[in-house]
Amino acid sequence: MNDSHIWKKTKFYSALERNNLELPNKAVFVGDDAFPLATYLMKPYSRHEGLEHKQKIFNYRLSRARRIVENAFGIMASRFRVYRKPISVSLDKTDSIIKATCALHNWLRTNLIYMNTPELVDGEDFSSGTIRNGSWRSIPTAGVDELMTPLSSNNYSRNAKDLRDRYADYFVGPGKVSWQDRMIA
């Protein structure tokens, strides 16, 4: 089975499709090219097309949001080896492992100053338009990268495309930030 077929068989996917997760109004998940565009899941505009300025800005802002999530998971993997490879226990035990490591992580952040260095997470230099990788990215992952294969789907609804376009318009309009043009140059 390919990843796209597996994704569509999950309870999470079904709940998203049926709008049963009680998410905040207008909430979306951020994804990369591996995921299909949907009204609940934004992905970048294809780089194979000639992108307009607003599409480049959208891709930058989406990748910026994704980096926050990657930093969170990367920090957890750098602190807890269990995340450096596929977890091969039951779903109930996996759930307990995740909750325990989150609680430990929060305790460490609160009580140990040296665990909160700025170098740990990715950073941006807005004046030069460069991105610095966080130190967590140098930790070996032992097989996790092999699990990340693209779902490659371009079958998305008109509503999902329109929503992504509205976000793109917002990011170059009322939601514009002063440094974003330098970051796509």
UniProtKB/TrEMBL annotation:
It is found in: Nucleus. This is DDE Tnp4 domain-containing protein. It comes from Parnassius mnemosyne (clouded apollo). Its cofactor is a divalent metal cation. Residues 2-106 form the DDE Tnp4 domain. Belongs to the HARBI1 family. Coiled coil: none annotated. Keywords: Hydrolase, Metal-binding, Nuclease, Nucleus. InterPro entries: HARBI1-like, HARBI1_dom. GO terms for cellular component: nucleus. PANTHER family: NUCLEASE HARBI1-LIKE PROTEIN, PTHR22930. One of its GO terms (molecular function) is hydrolase activity. It comes from the Eukaryota.
